[in-house]
Amino acid sequence: MPWSKRLLLPLLFLITLSLTGQATPKPLQSHFTKFSRSPLNNSPSYYCKDAPYISACETVLLSLKTTKHASPKFTPKQLFDPTLQFSLNHAEMARAHVYGLSLSYQQFQLKNKLVLGAMNDCMELLDDTIELLSNVINGSNTNPSTHSFDDVQTWLSAALTNQETCIQSLQNHKLIMSTYSENTSLLGSLAQNLVHYITNSLALHVSSMKPDMNPEGSRRRLLLSSDSNFPSWVSKSERKLLEASVEEIVGWNKSNTNIKVAVVAKDGSGTHKTIGEAVFGLLLKDGNNGRTVIHVKAGTYHENLKFSTKQKKVMLIGDGKGKSVIVSDRNSEEGWTTFQSATVDTHPKLTMASQQQIDIVMIPMMAHGHLIPFLALAKQIHHRTGFTIAIVNTPLNIQYLRSALHKDPTPGITLAELPFNSADHGLPPNTESTENLPLDLIGNFFASSVSLKAPFHNFMLDILQKQTKRPLCIISDVFFGWTVDVAKILGILNYSFTTGGAYGTLAYVSLWLNLPHRQTDSEEFSLPGFPQRCRFHVSHLHRFLRNADGTDIWSRFFQPQISSSLQSSGWLCNTAEEIEPFGLDLLRKYIKLPVWTIGPILPKPLLTKSSTNPSNGLLYKQHAGKEPGISPEKCLQWLDLQGTDSVLYISFGSQNTISASHMIELAFGLEESGNPFIWVIRPPIGFDMKAEFRAEWLPEGFEERMSESKQGLLVKNWAPQLEILSHESTGAFLSHCGWNSTLESLSQGVRMIGWPMAAEQGYNSKMLVEEMGVAVELTRGLQSSISREQVKKVIQMVMDKQGKGGDMKKKAQEIAKHIRAAVREEGKEKGSSIQALDDFISTIIRKNEEL
């Protein structure tokens, strides 16, 4: 078949995806050239008098004059770079503003899809603008020769067009102006200012040309060569590819590693059933080298394709004109804007998911230790795939997550509320998480979560009615097993996510499924799923678990929820293969389901070597909904005064505290050890956790002595834990051994002192001591006895760098290396956890194709 009769799409993608920036721009308007020839002068008004936008030019010049490095006179090149940076700053400001506006719109549940669509248009256009401007800036700062004059001009022209499209989209939907007149007026102003700054940048770019460079002459690339119907800049190898038959290309795929071929066929005879799935599958493959060809077999495909701008050299090829057809079914009546209705589009952050389509639904347990890992997982999946993810929970927990998103915006994540009234379940008003909840009410709280089943089912039905495609899957908390029933009824895949580690999760699961334990003959016992050498002690059991018999409120919740989760399609586990090989092997054998190790889910700065002493507050910004009792800056200043590996950090998490008598003994032991420490103090057991901390709960004069001697820093309520653990002065962590805190400590190579209190904490502590060798236990449980002498002895042993403490430190540092390796992604190299997440994503796509 001659190449000219081939489906037009291959050539279209060849040009738009692999040769971005090569198109010849239109001739510039005369005032651009006039601006470029303005005389150099120290006066902003004089220099900018011929600028396309005088005020914008003066704003940039005045900002330069306020800096100590400003030059008294500016060449066009000297002004081009800051004007460009000014444009990028305003683009990021506009992006943050429209995202906040979108969240506000969703919070008030306004239903006009076109209004939200207009906001999404602007977000997508601003994302593209930020990438385009960054391309120019990065090229200018590193190697200017890598970008041609035409490249830069095309990128700036595209960025300019983006703002005009955004403004037009806003003007088309007047409801925005009437509902959010103040906010959208600011958004419109930001977009218009961007037009001014980018236009001036474009003019300055032309002014930086050499005099002999003719905008319409020698720089222009000839589209057609004299002896061919191909553009002259298409290489011989690309010409050969365009002229080849499908059979020839498939043959090359087998012998040429630079060509990858995916086949899309509606009847299932290819590698994929839809083009979008093929596009996403290619994104997951290692590297971007070589040409990728997607052969779309005959048929009509109702799809809207979004390619990431990172996907280079992608070519679509069909079976002939009129045979392989891609049709967009989006229209304004269904809530789609003109911009979103394009059949094929590119975007710097998205691939195949539209912002209106919910691809994955997540529902975490109503506890902060579960909410944050779920949010972090949602961000990871979105950044890797472009999927839109809905996180569903009760109103106050959604408010908590919204606060977290405000600090670290992610446009691909939506939040949805399920109705919940705590008073209906015998709980205090506004009780929607375990934080600050008395222990005697936690069983009732867990049981209350089952009431979310009906509203969640209705939520899912609403999605199915509004979307053309069902979500790929539901990812639910391992303790929300009731979601498995909802998923099966609706024909949707369901996966359970345990936010704990493999060892601790298995122990907790086995204990609840093998009741009762109060009849244990001895203090030590074996547990189904564990080898005989792993002996558990009755002190590992929380009193609720020790007394559970299958009829109590705890048993009636945990047994059916865990049992149902074992009927899901697989489990995700917040750990890594390298740090828990033993626990993972036991877990997989026990539950007999696929287990993907996608952790540790921690902020990226914590997993890089450069995160040590992050005084810029980058880690703190990723905390959600909490204000520390001390600023990160003051905390870091105190740590800077201490020696390397010398400080003991003490915190029992957001849900735990100790008794008043324990608090007194711990304080005396800390003082007598002479070791520097940071201690997060909260009211003891039996008092309101939200109350002010009283001096009587500590030894008389203790706080004053610690402040004067600078031995200890007492932080009330909550501390910036990530900053503390990542600081080089922090040597050990006295912890309740909750899994999130454990991962944060291990990721920094910080050894631990265990004081487990509830849930799976005792089993985490057992693993840290017996399997990893990075911890010792101070005591266990809330009823145990503890003395100041014991506290002093354990602290001195752990902090001794020459004895056991030194060995623990080495082992902790080795685990930290394993953690960083598991989440590392450099070029084609992927850590085990990155690979596991990609494998999970590929699995849910494949299983949906099979449904």
Describe the structure.
The chain is an alpha/beta fold and 851 residues long. The chain has four domains: 3-18 and 236-347, Single-stranded right-handed beta-helix, Pectin lyase-like (Pectate Lyase C-like, 3 Solenoid), CATH 2.160.20; 30-207, Butyryl-CoA Dehydrogenase, subunit A, domain 3, CATH 1.20.140; 360-597, Rossmann fold; 627-822, Rossmann fold (3-Layer(aba) Sandwich), CATH 3.40.50.2000. The chain has 30 helices and 24 strands. Strands 10-9-8-11-12-15-16 form a seven-stranded parallel β-sheet, with helices on both faces. Helix 2 (30-36) packs across helix 9 (181-207) and helix 16 (453-466) runs parallel beside helix 17. The model is unreliable at 1-34, 36-41, 66-71, 107-111, 175-180, 210-227, 349-355 and 610-625 (pLDDT under 50).
C-alpha-based Rg, rounded: 30 Å
Q: What is the structural class?
A: alpha/beta
CATH architecture of the largest domain: 3-Layer(aba) Sandwich
First-last Cα distance: 36 Å
| Uncertain parts | 1-34, 36-41, 66-71, 107-111, 175-180, 210-227, 349-355, 610-625
Classified in CATH, the superfamily of the largest domain is Glycogen Phosphorylase B
Strand content: 5-15%
Structural domains: how many:
4
Indicate the CATH class of the largest domain: Alpha Beta
Tally of strands? 24
In DSSP terms (H or I, runs of 4 or more residues), the helix count works out at: 30
Globally, the shape reads: globular
- Average residue pLDDT: 80
